[in-house]
Design brief:
The strands form 4 sheets. Strands 4-5-6-7 form a 4-stranded antiparallel beta sheet. It has helices at residues 35-46, 83-95, 135-140, 155-162, 176-187, 206-215, 243-267, 280-287, 314-317, and strands at 2-8, 16-21, 28-33, 51-54, 61-64, 68-72, 79-82, 103-105, 113-116, 147-150, 198-203, 226-232, 271-275, 292-300. By secondary structure, the protein is an alpha+beta fold. Helix content is 30%, strand content 23%. The protein contains 9 helices and 14 strands. The protein folds into 3 domains: 2-95, no CATH class; 103-156, no CATH class; 165-300, NADH Oxidase, CATH 3.40.109. It is elongated, with a radius of gyration of 24 Å. GO terms for molecular function: oxidoreductase activity. Its cofactor is FMN. Residues 161-219, 223-301 form the Nitroreductase domain.
């Protein structure tokens, strides 16, 4: 692992995220520092000194040496960074005033409550302002107003927040009841006219899995504990539309079903990788079907748990047409 960068914290304008990158693009590690921990680290670097920074759990330590800085973390592998490189990035980061995060998300839940605030004013002090502003309007507003919108906490949003693809699985067998839930999720996915224009192949045979590895551009993680191949089946869609429209419906059905299974897998503590690169004809031959494969979903226990990757800001993602 090589130390790569320092980023603002997701939940606080005062802390930071230290990011390491492995050889694999998906292999990353993150250490999150709160305001006090970051200040202590900055103080050591500003003095060109050495020393220790004790982290919040009181058992993890950042040890700054003259050549290498070591991160000895509880129940975690040792992380290291070249002190000169880390010092430069941390001090540069500390020079920049970070803007307040207008969208606040609870730290233990993804969506128990979301609110947008103006740190300089309280809404009750602003005449004529109403808290009944939609969440999306406030997020996309050029001058966000302080609002609060309570949303019911659900496991679903925690799954959204913590889901992470993995390319390295443990060999641990996945419990049958978890497989049942994953398949049931595909069964209840919304489909065109409720005709369920797709088919799911559950691959248990080792030789079949290895053949799929070859058909999927030799991606080794296709040989996962659980492998599902989602195929389109437009013949099931009994609607009076041209064949190309029925094929489109069927592809959408299969894609939504695979997404439901992916989220269900995350919800029961598993990890997944979605495979879209494969030779369709080879996969059809391997499965012994004429149905067109749309995706391969590989599922299992991750070799190690990873934090979610950063995403672009919601304001950049959403375009409102009024």
């Amino acid at each position: 692992m090589k130390f790569q960068t320092i980023e603002p914290s997701y939940t606080s304008k005062d802390g930071c995220r230290l990011v390491w990158q492995g050889v694999d693009e998906d292999d990353t590690d993150v250490v999150i520092l709160n305001k006090k921990e970051l200040e202590n680290l900055v103080d050591i670097f500003a003095k060109n000194s050495t020393g220790d920074v004790e982290l919040e759990d009181q058992s993890s330590i950042i040890r700054v040496n003259s050549d290498v800085t070591q991160f000895t973390l509880t129940n975690h592998r040792l992380l290291e960074a070249k002190t000169n490189d880390l010092q430069e990035k941390v001090l540069d980061f500390a020079k920049i005033p970070h803007e307040p995060q207008y969208v606040y998300v609870g730290t233990k839940e993804f969506y128990p409550s979301v609110w947008i605030r103006d740190d300089e004013k309280s809404l009750k002090d602003v005449p004529g302002k109403s808290p009944k502003v939609s969440l999306i309007q406030a997020i996309l507003s050029s001058e966000p107003e302080k609002i609060r919108q309570d949303l019911s906490p659900t496991d679903l949003f925690r799954v959204f927040a913590t889901r992470r693809s993995t390319r390295k699985f443990e060999k641990t067998k996945v419990e049958d009841w978890k497989v049942d839930k994953i398949l049931s999720a595909a069964d209840v996915a919304p489909t065109a006219g409720n005709f369920q224009g797709f088919q799911v192949f559950l691959i248990k045979n080792k030789d079949t899995k290895q053949a799929l590895v070859e058909a999927a551009n030799k991606q080794p993680y296709v040989n996962a504990p659980i492998v599902l191949v989602f195929c389109t089946d437009p013949s099931r869609v009994k609607l009076k539309f041209p064949p190309e429209i029925l094929e489109k419906f069927s592809l959408q059905d299969a894609t939504i079903a695979a997404t439901f299974s992916l989220l269900a897998a995350s919800g029961v503590g598993l990890s997944t990788i979605w495979i879209g690169m494969f030779d369709e004809e080879k996969v059809k031959t391997i499965l012994g079907t004429d149905l067109k494969p749309s995706s391969i979903l590989c599922i299992g226990y991750p070799d190690k748990k990873k934090p979610p990757k950063s995403r672009r800001k919601l304001k950049e993602l959403i375009k409102v047409i009024e």
